[in-house]
Amino acid sequence: MNAFTDHTNHVDHANRGVPAAMPDAPRAELPLSRYKVLDLSIARAGPTAVRLLADWGADVTRVDPPSDRGSVTGRRRGSDEQNLHRNKRSVCLDLKKPQGAEVLRRLIARSDVVVENFRADVKERLGLTYEQLRRLNPRIILASISGFGQDGPYSDRPGVDQIVQGMCGLSSVTGEPGRGPVRVGIAISDTTAGMFLGQGILLALLHREHTGEGQWVHTSLLESMLNKLDFQAARYTVDGEVAAQQGNSHPTLAPMGTYRARDGMINIAASTDRMWAGFCEALDGGSLLAHPDYREPASRFAHRVQLDADINALTSRFDTAELVARLNPAGVPCGPIYDIGQAFEDPQVRHLRMTRPATHPALGELALLRSPINLSAFAHPEHFHHAGPDPGEQCDALLGELGYDAGAIEAMHAAGAVA
Question: Domains in the chain, ordered, with CATH?
Answer without folding.
Answer: 13-229+353-415 (3.40.50.10540), 256-345 (3.30.1540.10)
